[in-house]
Amino acid sequence: MTHVTIIGSGNMGQAISGLVSKGGNTVELLRHSDTGKPVTGDIVVLAVPHAAIPDILATRGDQLAGKVVVDITNPLNFQTFDSLTVPADSSAAAQIAASLPQSRVVKAFNTNLAATLASGTAGEVPTTVLIAGDDRQAKSQLADVVTAGGLRAIDSGSLRRARELEALGFLQITLAAQDKMPWTGGFALAG
């Protein structure tokens, strides 16, 4: 059994919490403001807006050492909705990994909408969680949690692939925000 801490109690935090519980793993859900509660999970999911990451790293960085840290953020420029806020040759996950050298950072869940995590499907296809990271064991540990919860998990490669995952997440969010796809839908991998 894996113990997962989720920092962030919004739609994504709630959906990931449900997935973890459904798979028989234990979960603690912390609000971003719950700074007095220590992080105890083997896996820590950062289910907050990208703009909140620097504060979390400053207040909880020491608690994240030795843990699998899952970045679900999409570093979208919410003022213009036309670009990502990280350099073209980097990603939010790479920046987090650089700030947490003693943690095993992976990118996951950012290409999923909360509704598809909760329902287990994207249209007629099972929901797939794409996972990128440099630590094979960390990716496997997260994949086990995802598949125990009834979803598909695909290893998308090294942490360098986080840039492409963030671009895909960005596209999905902008399409949904423009009512070109429903917030209950999403991209799916068939086959």
Automatic annotation (TrEMBL):
Molecular function via GO: oxidoreductase activity
Coiled coil: none
Domain Pyrroline-5-carboxylate reductase catalytic N-terminal: 41-75
Gene3D superfamilies noted in UniProt: NAD(P)-binding Rossmann-like Domain
Record-linked SUPFAM superfamilies: NAD(P)-binding Rossmann-fold domains (SSF51735)
Entry annotated with the keyword Kinase: no
Keyword list, A-Z: Oxidoreductase
A matching Pfam family: F420_oxidored
InterPro entries in alphabetical order: NAD(P)-bd_dom_sf (IPR036291), P5C_Rdtase_cat_N (IPR028939), STEAP_metalloreductase (IPR051267)
Name assigned to this protein: NAD(P)-binding domain-containing protein
